[in-house]
């Protein structure tokens, strides 16, 4: 197994944030679930190597790419990643390593106060209503437009 993908330090930060899995059934327990650390290794492998989930080497990370993808999906639904982000920011603030002067905000994730500005409404450039092209029984409106 590749220990350099998930260091002990990273695992100590992530492990408490992971949701508790339901216990296995007594009758028909099924296959043993893959280790959470192995799934995290698979996720980090995909992120670092830019490979698809099916190209994750199971013998290197300890689980298949599909298993890693499912854990990523489950952990995302459980809100693990925003909590990890908060933990890392708190550590940086505590150690004095976070320079707020160098921060950048992506506007796509910032709520516009009071709804933000609305674009100007489009005004009609032509007088009257547009001629209907579907309800004409004689086609006189179409003939008058083409003249």
TrEMBL record:
Region spans: Disordered: 127-147
Pfam families, A to Z: DUF4096
Domain called Insertion element IS402-like: residue spans: 6-85
Residue ranges, compositional bias (Low complexity): 130-147
InterPro entries given in the database record: IS402-like_dom, Transposase_6_like
Top-level taxon in the UniProt lineage: Bacteria
Name recorded for this polypeptide: Insertion element IS402-like domain-containing protein
Organism: Streptomyces griseoviridis
């Amino acid at each position: 197994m590749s220990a350099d993908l998930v260091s002990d330090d990273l695992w100590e930060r992530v492990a408490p944030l992971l949701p508790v899995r339901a216990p296995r059934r007594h009758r028909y327990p099924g296959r043993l679930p893959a280790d959470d650390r192995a799934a995290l290794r698979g996720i980090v492998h995909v992120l670092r190597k830019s490979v698809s989930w099916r190209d994750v080497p199971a013998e290197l990370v300890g689980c298949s790419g599909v298993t890693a993808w499912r854990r990523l999906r489950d952990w995302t639904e459980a809100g693990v990643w925003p909590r990890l982000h908060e933990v890392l920011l708190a550590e940086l603030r505590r150690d004095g390593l976070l320079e707020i002067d160098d921060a950048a905000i992506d506007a796509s994730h910032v709520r516009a106060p009071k709804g933000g500005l609305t674009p100007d409404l489009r005004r009609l450039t032509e007088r009257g209503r547009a001629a209907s092209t579907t309800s004409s029984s004689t086609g006189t409106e179409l003939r008058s437009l083409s003249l």
